[in-house]
Amino acid sequence: MRPRPLILLVLIPLLEVALLVALGRRVGVAAVLLLSLATAAMGVWLVRAQGRVVLGALIAALRSGRLPVAEAFHGAALAVAGVALLVPGLLSDLAGLVLLIPGLRWRLYRWIAERTRGALLRERAAAGVVELEAVPIEEAGALAGDERRREG
């Protein structure tokens, strides 16, 4: 059974606060505040730097006439990483740092793409959708002519 989003919205912040309090008791409040400020500043800097790279790739994809799905995903992941690093908390900082690593973002993109593609194919099959391949008219005519010649 999957946890409900509402439960996660309550449990994650509570866990974040508990971890910050535990860390504050261990290393001191000032160190925790400094850590929170440092991760926020580092996150803003890294998101801006990687955001420029992703934006360049997105523009290049558009100019070449390709739909920039992967680039849009990476841009969205960087936006989520930026928010996660700005929000105080150890778990959110970890999630933000993970999303800043390009190799891990690619793995996440592929995983989501595979799951989405599989679900989409199952949905189409259940709805009776048949996928066909388009053949240019010239080739279709030539193929039909070949069949008539063979029969005759």
Describe the structure.
- The protein is 84% helix and 0% strand.
- It is mainly α and 152 residues long.
- It has one domain.
- Helix 3 crosses helix 5.
- The longest helix has 35 residues.
- The radius of gyration is 25 Å and the shape is elongated.
- The mean pLDDT is 82.
How would you sum up this structure in a few lines?
This protein has one domain. The termini are far apart. The protein has 152 residues and is mainly α.
List keywords for this structure.
152 residues, mainly alpha, 6 helices, 84% helix, elongated
Mean pLDDT: 82
Binned, the helix content reads over 70%
Secondary-structure-derived class: mainly alpha
If helices are DSSP runs of H or I spanning 4 or more residues, what is the number of helices?
6
Shape: elongated
- Main sheet, how many strands, which sense, barrel? none
List SSEs in N-to-C order.
HHHHHH
Radius of gyration: 25 Å
Strand content: under 5%
Query: Low-confidence runs (pLDDT<50, min 5 residues)?
Result: none
User: How many angstroms separate the termini?
Assistant: 63 Å
Q: How many β-strands, per DSSP?
A: 0
Number of domains: 1
